[in-house]
Write a structure and sequence with these properties.
single chain; mainly alpha; two-stranded antiparallel ribbon
Length: 261
């Protein structure tokens, strides 16, 4: 497996594990279910991206590239669902869909564009030299980028307003989720845009790490502030996991530093 495949697989496994962990920690709480729906959209995005990292006939590869971009478009919907359930824990699905009607419409338009030649013109099978499948974009690429930039602004504004009006655990949840979502979106958009502007799409092989940024904020929030209503026992488990990851990273860095000295 190459770097792109490994990075994508790590992000997929980590995101899936966190989503299931949060759901099982409090399966009846609407916020936990909403967070799982967000991680589900991310699973679909990372899963389809992982498929594109292998050799396929051009029509099959093009299909999965378009699915990857389409699933990415749904991630902001998951964020807004999560935000709405934090603000209104008892909101019903019908009311939620009505509240998000304009975002659902915008996502539908962008997904339609993702499946047209004005966005993705062609895709070439990845090779050892080019781990990320070379994609030829049309002007729809800028529409997709603009969609995520607008989403980022709305996430900042909406979560900031909600945090001002709340206190305690609910405020902590909003703050950690806001920082995670904003950092994740900005990292993903910047890496993809820079890679396209520099005509070096290999840079985008690290885009899956943007998911781990959100997961990192949420995991840290669980360990330090017990957000998402996890139990004390599970909070300690997460704390030990974070400490283990820190020690492993420190060890790997030390070995690398000694080896290159």
């Amino acid at each position: 497996m190459n770097v792109f495949q490994i990075v994508t697989l790590i992000a997929l496994v980590g995101n899936t594990s966190l989503g299931i962990f949060v759901l099982l920690s409090n399966p009846t709480r609407s916020v936990n279910k909403a967070f799982f729906s967000l991680t589900l959209f991310m699973m679909l995005w990372l899963g389809s991206m992982f498929v594109t990292a292998w050799s396929w006939p051009s029509p099959v590869l093009l299909f999965w590239v378009r699915q990857t971009l389409s699933f990415a478009t749904l991630i902001p919907i998951g964020v807004f669902i999560l935000h709405s359930t934090i603000i209104e824990p008892d909101i019903r699905i019908r009311a939620l869909l009505f509240k998000l009607k304009y975002w659902l419409l915008a996502a539908g338009v962008v997904i339609a564009v993702c499946h047209s030649s004005i966005f993705v013109i062609s895709a070439t099978t990845p090779t050892e030299q080019k781990q990320v499948p070379p994609i030829e974009y049309g002007w729809g690429f800028f529409l997709h980028t603009a969609y995520f930039l607008v989403v980022t602004v709305f996430v900042v504004v909406n979560f900031w307003r909600a945090a001002k009006e709340r206190t305690g655990a609910q405020k902590a949840e909003i703050q950690f989720l806001q920082m995670g979502c904003v950092a994740s979106f900005i990292l993903g958009v910047v890496v993809v845009t820079v890679a396209e502007l520099l005509s070096n799409q290999e840079l985008s092989r690290f885009v899956p790490l943007s998911v781990l940024v959100l997961d990192g904020f949420v995991t840290y929030g669980i360990a330090t502030r017990r957000i998402l209503a996890v139990s004390t026992v599970l909070q300690r488990v997460v704390s030990y996991i974070l400490m283990s990851i820190y020690l492993v990273c420190l060890y790997v860095f030390s070995v690398w530093a000694i080896g290159t000295a």
